[in-house]
Amino acid sequence: MIGATEWLPVALAGLGAIAALFTLLWLASLRLRDASIVDPFWGPAFLLATAVFLVGTSPATPRGVIVLTIVAIWALRLGLYINARNRGQGEDPRYQEFRRRGGAAYWWISLFRVFLLQAILAWVISAPLLAAQLSDAPLGPLDIAGLALWAAGFLFEVVGDQQLRAFRADPTSKGRVLRTGLWAWTRHPNYFGEAVLWWGYFVIALGAGGWWTVFAPALMTFLLVRVSGVALLERGLAARRPGYAEYVREVPAFIPRPPRMTSERPSAAKE
User: How far apart are CA 178 and CA 138, in angstroms?
Assistant: First the structure.
């Protein structure tokens, strides 16, 4: 088990790496006038931090290698998906609003409100990924349970994203709401899967004594539900989109439940 005097420099090194990444992205965004370039790097930021944690706590343990592997699978998949989704769409309206409000000072405001804020959040939430490196205890049932939970969440997220992509690509879907597959169980299957896989990381960290990192998946779940995920997307959506209010009444926002037998009604949901 690594002592506090040894793991603190490793944790700070992870923070420095993430902050450097997001600062470089900020500089690029100033040149491109597009803060949206930060979005595809949310997942890869955790991969960078995990790699720094693994190197800093060498020699690597089987648990540490496993965590690095599954973080890489999740982070690269998410980064590539968001990059493909955002390509050619211009700057996200959220950042356009920041730019409008910030005026001439936006370049400075964006550093703290967009880039470094995400860097700090990523570092705080990465606590289970660090904790997984801190013990050389043998793998056990908690690691198996955590991997199973991670796999379930990852599958839910990937399938939800692919179903939405296929729906959007179908010209006959215009004016309709996606209410098949996982989208019949929850209005945000991708966000639910994201939360579940982060609880999987936490359960793996438990095997290394990382019970104290429970705040990380709890914070991620809160952000997904109340801040940057469900709440942000659905703000005013029922008022703007005919039929969406009925979809809200029939399908839960986050935690899935078996779909009710209802006919699909016109709408225009967007994730």
Answer: 45
pLDDT digits (tens, 9 = 90+) for 78-125: 999 999 999 888 888 888 887 888 888 888 889 998 999 999 999 999
Confidence of residue 238 (pLDDT cuts 50, 70, 90): low
pTM, full prediction? 0.91
Q: What angle do CA 243, 244, 250 make, to 5 degrees?
A: 100
Per the structure, the complete domain to which residue 181 belongs is given by 139-271
Does the pLDDT of residue 253 top 70, yes or no?
yes
Looking at 117, 136, 155, the residue that finishes a domain is: 136
Contact 180, 163 (CB under 8 A): yes
